[in-house]
């Protein structure tokens, strides 16, 4: 083979050349006779010939290259996969779910890892100098790091993990501290796992699992995770086994304030929003709260009372409407406190088709009787109401919380409380579907030729300042 350093060079086809010249048209009785002829041909013809492209004798070129040739290695060439890795906070690099010591490479630096069948080579990223050689581990999660190389001084990552564990509870922080004291920064991977459990499970079972691990001196993340999962499953079984309590309508509840307080609140809102371009209702008389809908969540002590606004508050009109239908003005507001995220169930398909026939027929009948002029009037009232979407109780998923007072909600949907001049108050925890029910009743009121005004709690309080 002849090859120049600055070009592709040329590769001699030795087998084809020999077959086409020395062996062409010849037959031999034995293999030894053929080899003897080829040796004679190589010494007296092939080596002494002038190379057609190099214009030099082949034997002379071989003698020049012979001192630079090296013997073939005893072992076969080993295939490997090369990748770039970053040195972790515990001075290791991760390869196939295992961790290998990378010193003297500094933390956060990049190194080149050559992955062979049975060994791992760690090399410098720039100079390609060999830094470490390790046997490749078959068990995932293995850590190949001598004890004298494990760093035990806390880093910023350690401080962050201990702070996060302390926010879960004292037992969680104590377990994470024990893991760090025992394994050094290598234990931070288990600490990350324990802290991450609080994003999936409540803090209480995580605290109980950490306390159990400390009492039994089992400082392993897998043990803590298995204990948390078991405790969580037991809690779910207890909740499912608890008797289902009836949720009747009631007038007396810690969250229901007196009618006088609600009357004063809306009187101030009406006076303040009189010149606010119709964002709030016009001045109106205040009627007493005659009916309220309450959905207690569990038979446990009620939390501290919060300021809640009535979701549906019909007010008699003091001025005639600009259309042929006179009715009541309705104010809608969510009961979530200011600054808290509002939730509404979105799994509507599961509950479709299971609502009482009365509400469905009423909704379809009110929509089917509208003419062109009435349709434009309904659409205009919808645009002025502040509702963001046209919701109905037919789209509500009642299966996500069977404790919701379904029958009472459909009774409100018939708008009988507006005809009776009464108020309706929806109270419950965030995410129970109050906003969806309120919007559905408000949209039904629009279809029944009522004027509706929907406003969120935080916007309401801002407007009444």
Number of domains: 4
Strand fraction equals: 5-15%
The proportion of residues forming helix, as a percent range, comes to: 25-40%
Radius of gyration: 41 Å
What low-confidence regions span 5 or more consecutive residues with pLDDT below 50?
A: 1-9, 277-370
First-residue to last-residue Cα separation: 93 Å
Instruction: Tell me how many strands there are.
Output: 12
**How many helices?**
15
Major sheet: 4 strands, antiparallel
Order of helices and strands: HHHEEEEEEEHHHHHHEEEHHHHEHEH
Topology record:
Blueprint: H1 14-21, H2 31-46, H3 58-65, E1 81-86, E2 92-95, E3 98-101, E4 110-115, E5 119-124, E6 130-135, E7 143-144, H4 156-168, H5 170-183, H6 188-197, H7 203-216, H8 221-241, H9 259-272, E8 293-294, E9 313-315, E10 329-332, H10 357-368, H11 372-385, H12 406-413, H13 416-419, E11 426-427, H14 434-447, E12 451-454, H15 457-463
Parallel strand pairs: 3-7, 8-11, 10-12
Antiparallel strand pairs: 1-4, 2-3, 4-5, 5-6, 9-10
Helix pairs in contact: 4-5, 4-6, 5-6, 5-7, 6-8, 7-8
Structure notes:
With 465 residues, this protein is an alpha/beta fold. The protein has four domains: 29-68, no CATH class; 81-149, OB fold (Dihydrolipoamide Acetyltransferase, E2P), CATH 2.40.50; 156-241, no CATH class; 259-297 and 304-463, no CATH class. It has 15 helices and twelve strands. It has helices at 14-21, 31-46, 58-65, 156-168, 170-183, 188-197, 203-216, 221-241, 259-272, 357-368, 372-385, 406-413, 416-419, 434-447, 457-463, and strands spanning 81-86, 92-95, 98-101, 110-115, 119-124, 130-135, 143-144, 293-294, 313-315, 329-332, 426-427, 451-454. A four-stranded antiparallel sheet has the order 1-4-5-6, with no helix packed on it. A three-stranded mixed sheet has the order 2-3-7, with no helix packed on it. It is elongated. The N and C termini lie far apart (93 Å).
């Amino acid at each position: 083979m002849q090859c120049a350093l600055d070009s592709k060079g040329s590769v001699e086809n030795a087998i084809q050349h020999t077959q086409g010249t020395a062996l062409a048209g010849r037959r031999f009785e034995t293999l030894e006779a053929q080899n003897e002829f080829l040796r004679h041909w190589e010494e007296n013809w092939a080596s002494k010939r002038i190379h057609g492209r190099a214009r030099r004798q082949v034997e002379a070129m071989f003698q020049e290259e012979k001192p630079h040739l090296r013997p073939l290695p005893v072992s076969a060439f080993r295939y490997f996969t090369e990748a770039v890795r970053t040195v972790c906070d515990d001075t290791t690099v991760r390869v196939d779910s295992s961790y290998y010591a990378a010193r003297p490479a500094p933390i956060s630096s990049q190194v080149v890892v050559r992955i062979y069948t049975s060994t791992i080579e760690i090399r410098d990223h720039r100079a390609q100098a060999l830094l470490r050689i390790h046997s490749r581990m078959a068990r995932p999660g293995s850590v190949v790091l001598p004890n004298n190389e494990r760093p035990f001084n806390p880093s910023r990552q350690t401080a962050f993990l201990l702070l996060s564990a302390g926010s879960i509870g004292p037992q969680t922080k104590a377990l994470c501290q024990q893991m760090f004291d025992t394994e050094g920064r290598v234990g931070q991977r288990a600490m990350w796992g324990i802290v991450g459990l609080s994003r999936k499970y409540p803090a209480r079972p995580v605290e109980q699992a950490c306390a159990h691990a400390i009492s039994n001196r089992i400082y392993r993340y897998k043990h803590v995770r298995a204990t948390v999962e078991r405790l969580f499953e037991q809690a779910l079984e207890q909740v499912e086994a608890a008797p289902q309590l009836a949720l009747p309508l009631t007038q007396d509840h810690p969250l229901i304030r007196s009618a006088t307080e609600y009357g004063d609140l809306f009187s101030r809102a009406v006076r303040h929003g009189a010149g606010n371009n119709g964002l709030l209702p016009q001045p109106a008389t205040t009627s007493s709260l005659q009916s309220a809908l309450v959905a207690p969540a569990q038979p446990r002590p009620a939390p501290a009372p919060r300021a809640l606004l009535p979701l549906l508050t019909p007010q008699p009109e003091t001025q005639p409407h600009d259309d042929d239908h006179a009715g009541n003005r309705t104010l809608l507001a969510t009961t979530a406190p200011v600054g808290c995220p509002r939730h509404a169930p979105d799994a509507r398909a599961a509950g479709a088709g299971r609502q009482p026939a009365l509400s469905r027929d009423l909704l379809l009948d009110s929509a089917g009787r509208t003419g062109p002029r009435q349709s434009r009037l309904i659409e205009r009232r919808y645009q002025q109401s502040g509702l963001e979407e046209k919701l109905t109780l037919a789209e509500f998923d009642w299966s996500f919380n069977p404790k919701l007072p379904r029958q009472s909600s459909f009774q409100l949907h018939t708008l009988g409380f507006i005809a009776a001049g009464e108020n309706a108050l929806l109270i419950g925890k965030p995410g129970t579907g109050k906003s969806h029910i309120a919007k559905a009743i408000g949209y039904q009121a629009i279809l029944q030729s009522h004027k509706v005004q929907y406003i969120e709690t935080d916007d309401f309080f801002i407007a009444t300042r």
